[in-house]
Amino acid sequence: MGLFRQSSTLPGANEALPGRPEPIETAQTHFVNGHFLAGPYPEGSKQVLFGMGCFWGAERKFWSLPGVYVTAVGYAGGVTPNPTYEEVCTGLTGHTEVVQVVYEKGVDLASLLRVFWENHDPTQGMRQGNDIGTQYRSAVYVTGEAELALVEATRRTFGEALRLAGYPPITTEVAERPPFYFAEAYHQQYLAKNPAGYCGLGGTGVSCAIGTGVAA
């Protein structure tokens, strides 16, 4: 994935790109399971946004997990409405690359958070490996105080495991879910369409029992 600007500073509202009022064109259905990317979703399902660096590799980590109904990649956490990939790459939208995970009723959010924490390095700030810039920052966006509290609890637990392994503090952005903007069609399920494509997603090699499985 090409880099247009390796910015480590988020833009202010007065310097962010203006974007556009209408969503950009994207795929309608999931390349792997055929479900509609933008819904309708099953009754009782929930959504979470994960930023783990390159969203191609991040999405692949989630689409085959039990109870995950559909995934999609896009942009969140910034200022510019309905940005394009090229705009996000300038560093002037404030967005990070994310995967939206729609999971069915009965799935424990903690099990998804474990996949999130263990499959990238959440201590690197505005980068992930060789991918440098604000669009590659680690982030978790959820809905409501209970979910925020769960994220923070797992962050503390995993952060302690990282500390004991010699890693610096976690830099992951944790916040209420902001607007999610679907990325272009060619980005959706990219590594299913291009199995030998670039992933850019690694991890620390540290694991931690932060809660897994399905809620009763």
UniProtKB/TrEMBL annotation:
The entry's cellular-component GO terms read: cytoplasm
- Keyword flag Oxidoreductase: yes
List of catalytic residues: C54
Q: Which UniProt keywords apply?
A: Oxidoreductase
Q: What are this entry's molecular-function GO terms?
A: L-methionine:thioredoxin-disulfide S-oxidoreductase activity; peptide-methionine (S)-S-oxide reductase activity
On whether Oxidoreductase is a keyword of this UniProt record, the answer is: yes
Q: Where is this region: Disordered?
A: 1-21
Domain of life of the source: Bacteria
* Free-text function comment from the UniProt entry: Has an important function as a repair enzyme for proteins that have been inactivated by oxidation. Catalyzes the reversible oxidation-reduction of methionine sulfoxide in proteins to methionine.
Protein name as it appears in the record: Peptide methionine sulfoxide reductase MsrA
Q: Which organism is it from?
A: Chelatococcus asaccharovorans
